[in-house]
């Protein structure tokens, strides 16, 4: 029994030894790795940067009320086109009762003064007719009487303005809010029944409507500081609107901010570009967009895949095939890159084969 166990153990050891030897022999006879190659191509390389931002109207106006009160009627809705002077809303006045009481008191005072002035004027008029006083003396009382009549008229108008928003002889009503420019109504933030505060030197007042000229749109976005030095006014931009996929717009760069802003830890600069509108597509305010800005472009240049480059401290290299599966390291001079392909200025010919990395 012991002999059987002994011979079995020896057979197992021999099997493991032979198996290991066979494995090592096969491994040493494995086929060498075969490298694929790429050939330089003639192509057009466009170097560009991308600015993220939005499309907005060049001029966006908030129309505010000159009186305080409650919105009685709104005559427009968002999306409606209006002309300058069109009535947007009507306000029901809510005057301060102290001001109303003061205006009423001033009116009563002016009427009393007018009554006294009229009595004195009529008396002097009779004396003048009898030639008992001079014309200059008479004119003094006439002027005083006319001034008192005007004071009553002013007091009445002041009271009417507080109560109704208009004077007796005026065709302008302060509680009717007109459009200040031609354009489209983008928003009506306060509906009927909302209380509004007048615009004054102490406060901006409540907005009744937001108007904008939708035929004059601009792109406003941010560009990284590493690219801003390459931008110039007049450069062409291609806008890709998030909501209008596959329908790019053209734009012309017209402004680059002289001051950068911090955005997520990096310095970026604001740019603005005039959008060339497409009559078949409607651009809405605040559409998000990306702008492709062409910084450099070269046509029909020799290029390789940028991933095949070997980058060292002061030079760039590629491995060129000199014989089947034999390569030599060769220095090349590169030009512009689009992130995929890179221009080869010198060091390679169109017939060379470069090791694919």
Describe the fold and architecture.
The protein is α+β, with helices and mostly antiparallel strands and 357 residues long. The chain is 26% helix and 40% strand. The chain folds into four domains: 37-44 and 299-355, conserved putative lor/sdh protein from methanococcus maripaludis s2 fold (Beta Barrel), CATH 2.40.420; 50-57 and 214-298, Elongation Factor Tu (Ef-tu), domain 3 (Beta Barrel); 61-90 and 177-212, RNA polymerase II/Efflux pump adaptor protein, barrel-sandwich hybrid domain (OB fold (Dihydrolipoamide Acetyltransferase, E2P)), CATH 2.40.50.100; 97-164, Helix hairpin bin (Helix Hairpins, Orthogonal Bundle), CATH 1.10.287. It has helices at 2-28, 97-129, 135-164, 225-228, and strands at residues 37-38, 41-57, 60-64, 69-74, 81-82, 87-93, 176-178, 183-187, 195-196, 207-212, 217-224, 236-241, 249-263, 266-276, 287-305, 310-311, 316-323, 326-337, 341-346, 354-355.
Could you outline the blueprint of secondary structure elements for this entry?
Layout: H1 2-28, E1 37-38, E2 41-57, E3 60-64, E4 69-74, E5 81-82, E6 87-93, H2 97-129, H3 135-164, E7 176-178, E8 183-187, E9 195-196, E10 207-212, E11 217-224, H4 225-228, E12 236-241, E13 249-263, E14 266-276, E15 287-305, E16 310-311, E17 316-323, E18 326-337, E19 341-346, E20 354-355
Antiparallel strand pairs: 1-20, 2-11, 2-15, 3-10, 4-6, 4-9, 5-8, 6-7, 8-10, 11-14, 12-13, 12-15, 13-14, 15-19, 16-17, 17-18, 18-19
Helix pairs in contact: 2-3
Relevant terms:
conserved putative lor/sdh protein from methanococcus maripaludis s2 fold, Elongation Factor Tu (Ef-tu), domain 3, alpha+beta, rod-shaped, 20 strands, OB fold (Dihydrolipoamide Acetyltransferase, E2P), six-stranded antiparallel barrel, 357 residues
């Amino acid at each position: 029994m012991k002999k059987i166990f002994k011979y079995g153990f020896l057979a197992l050891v021999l099997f493991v030894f032979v198996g290991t030897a066979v494995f090592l022999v096969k491994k040493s006879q494995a086929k060498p790795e075969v490298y694929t190659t790429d050939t330089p191509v003639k192509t057009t390389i466009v170097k560009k940067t991308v600015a993220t931002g939005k499309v907005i109207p060049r001029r966006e106006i908030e129309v505010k009320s000159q009186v305080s009160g409650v919105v009685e009627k709104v005559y427009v809705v968002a999306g409606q086109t209006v002309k300058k002077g069109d009535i947007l809303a009507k306000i029901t006045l809510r005057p301060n009762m102290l001001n109303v009481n003061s205006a009423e008191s001033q009116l009563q005072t002016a009427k009393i003064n007018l009554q006294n002035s009229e009595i004195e004027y009529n008396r002097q008029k009779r004396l003048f007719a009898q030639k008992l006083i001079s014309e200059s003396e008479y004119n003094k009382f006439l002027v005083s009487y006319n001034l008192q009549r005007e004071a009553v008229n002013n007091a009445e108008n002041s009271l009417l303005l507080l109560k109704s928003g208009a004077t007796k002889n005026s065709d302008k009503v302060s509680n009717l809010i007109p459009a200040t420019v031609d354009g489209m109504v983008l928003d009506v933030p306060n509906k009927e029944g909302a209380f509004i505060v007048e615009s004054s030197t102490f406060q901006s007042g409540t907005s009744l409507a937001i108007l904008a000229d939708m035929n004059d749109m601009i792109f406003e976005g941010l560009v990284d500081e590493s690219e801003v030095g390459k931008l110039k006014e007049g450069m062409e931009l291609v806008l890709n609107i998030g909501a209008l996929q596959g329908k790019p717009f053209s734009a012309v760069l017209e402004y680059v901010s002289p001051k950068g802003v911090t955005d997520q830890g990096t310095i970026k600069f604001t740019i603005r570009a005039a959008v060339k509108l497409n009559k078949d597509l409607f651009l809405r305010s605040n559409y998000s967009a990306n702008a492709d800005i062409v910084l450099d472009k070269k046509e029909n240049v020799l290029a390789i895949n940028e991933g095949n480059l070997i980058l060292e401290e002061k030079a760039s290299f590629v491995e060129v095939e000199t014989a089947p599966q034999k390569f030599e390291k060769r220095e090349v001079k590169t030009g512009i890159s689009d992130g995929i392909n890179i221009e080869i200025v010198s060091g390679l010919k169109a017939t060379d084969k470069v090791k694919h990395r």
